[in-house]
Amino acid sequence: MEKESFEDQFKKLTLSEIDNIVSKYSDYPIDRLIRLNIFYDQNKDKPIEISVTDQDRKNMNEFAEFRHNAYAAYSIFDIEKQAFDLLINQKPKFPPEAPDISNKLILDYISDARVFIDSTTNWVKKNIPDYFDKWDNIRKDLYSTSASYRICYHLRNYVLHKMYVPTKAISVFSSNKVDYMLDIDNLLDDSQFINKVKLPDDYFKDKSHVYLKGHIVEYHNQLHYLYLLAMRKYFIAKGKKVKEWHDYFAKRKFPSKLYELVTTKMELFGTGKAQFDLLDTHDTVA
Q: Does residue 1 fall inside a structural domain?
């Protein structure tokens, strides 16, 4: 049988066990990590044994399901965010890259964004049903009040049906970025697209509305905001149960890594700009 690595062994230790180990090697003029390596070297052939009861397994299974559901939502958001980062951080090349490179980045993003919206809608309905109507009304409100949201949302269907990405890549060498100018004539010629996005007649006379990246940034920030609302409400809804699991595992002196949520929450909430100002408007997170 393959021996456990030091890292795996270390992850199973409680804080009190670590302090106890370090104190035993206090006469060594070396740092904490090296002392723990000495401990591991001297004990690597001794398996750590934990007696697991039926109640332990029940709580473990419930906690595992809680984490699994949280990471299911995170994984969908992460796919959208990775596609967003690739598109936004595209650098200009000389000679320019073939148009299909830019087209793929755009199609990947608007498709992944739609998958995120559909999947997260189902996730909220299933995992925090009491909050679903409020969350879904916020989503509908963002859709109805944001032209950028509607443009990006319906651009995906336009591209799939027309087999054409209505943009032209524009290299902005001063900022080392690539932007995309919308093919306004073709978009305005599509009655289905225009009827769905419901834009003012003079909307595209504002030159800032002609470039796609500005719309995509606003769209992504709004999706990030919807994700944060869902995840925070999930943690709040499960907060009492999480504390019960934490106290139970601590009382049983199980390894703290089994029930520690600090790193988990940091990863799940992610980083980046979202429309946090809307939190006050909707007053949904305590």
A: no
Count of the separate structural domains present in the chain: 2
Residue 281, both tokens: 């408007």
Which helix (DSSP H) or strand (DSSP E) does residue 181 occupy?
strand 177-182
- Which residues of the chain fall short of a pLDDT of 70? 1-51, 92-100, 169-176, 254-286
Domain region containing 19: 6-43
243: in domain: yes
32 phi/psi in degrees, rounded to 5: -60, -45
Q: In angstroms, rounded to a whole number, what is the distance separating the alpha carbons of residues 61 and 248?
A: 13
Tell me, yes or no, whether 166 and 34 share the same domain. Answer: no
Q: What are the residues whose beta carbons fall under 8 Å from the beta carbon of 237, sequence distance 6 or more?
A: 128, 130, 131
* 86 and 150 belong to one structural domain: yes
Distance CA 113, CA 175 (A): 26
- State residue 84's pLDDT score: 95
pLDDT at residue 227, rounded to an integer: 93
* Cα–Cα distances in angstroms (integers) from residue 12 to residues 48, 54, 81, 89, in the given order: 8, 20, 33, 40
| Residues 15, 130 within the same domain | no
Work out the end-to-end distance of the chain between its first and last CA atoms, rounded to an integer number of angstroms: 49
pLDDT (0 to 100) of residue 17 = 66
211: DSSP letter: B
Q: State pTM to two decimals.
A: 0.72
